[in-house]
Amino acid sequence: MGIKGFIGALLLTGSGCFAQADSITSAYIQKFPDKLSVQLFTLNTSNQFTLDYEDIGTTINMVPNERRTLGVSVQYDFISFNLGFAPKFFAENKDNRDSKMTSFGLNLFLGKWMQHFDLYYQKGISLEVDDYESVYLSGLKTIKIGGSTSYVFNDNYSFRALAFQNERQLKSTGSFAPSLSYYYTEFNGRKEPQLGGKSYFLDVALSPAYNYNWVVAKNILIAGGLSLGAGVTYTKDGSISDTDFLTQAGLTLSLGYNSETFYGGVYAKVLASNHNADTAVNMDDTIAYGTVFFGYRFDPPRFLKEKTEEIKEKIKI
């Protein structure tokens, strides 16, 4: 089913979709537990890599070709997911010779815990070196899969309001929210004649973080977060393997309008990792994206409400 058909199906099954939102309100947070939230977004995103060859003083930037992504995000109760792909009708995607970009994300809000999973798939990458012409490798693919587990200390802080989903922050507040992140990243050059083979690395890091939601006006929010962490990385490149120290830094910023039914705004996130290898080659790994989004909340179909309640009962949420 295409994206238009998917959105249409959601709208058709949401009887009474223009009804006033049901909500649960406290002094700091307004929740919409019985509303299905659908969001359309367009974003620029990529997983970029930098290889630093210290012994010869050369740095190679690995830049994916396709950037502009169109996506849909859906949230109901404690779960949300999003799917994005890079269609050819965007002007900046038309000259990317057989390149691809797909992303998927899943969030679970379990009380004061937030569980996040995501996946990035890229095909077609340019190798860029200062003072040299870039080299395009159409057969080089990368995949990153993993996520993070976070804990929010302040009950008055809304993690969901940061991304303008099914909660709204009513009063400004922040929270310490440490997270444990874990990612598997693979380079697959088996279909690239100049490379052959594949390599991968595993990252695990613990990152103290602080997030703040600033309520500028009744329906306008500025939000952000900063994290700094460290961990270990395991690298496997052909017959060579290595375990090294890992440092990470993350930054999130968002600005938008959030009413009881309609919401929209901009959201940006950067996660940078440095693999401090003992070998002659160091790698920096950066995921960065900026998105513009528009969403609407409406009544869910009855079967979705019943099924969600069954799941919540089983897992004791």
From TrEMBL:
<dbReference type="Pfam" id="PF14391">
    <property type="entry name" value="DUF4421"/>
</dbReference>
<protein>
    <recommendedName>
        <fullName>DUF4421 domain-containing protein</fullName>
    </recommendedName>
</protein>
<keyword id="KW-0732">Signal</keyword>
<dbReference type="InterPro" id="IPR025535">
    <property type="entry name" value="DUF4421"/>
</dbReference>
<feature type="signal peptide">
    <location>
        <begin position="1"/>
        <end position="21"/>
    </location>
</feature>
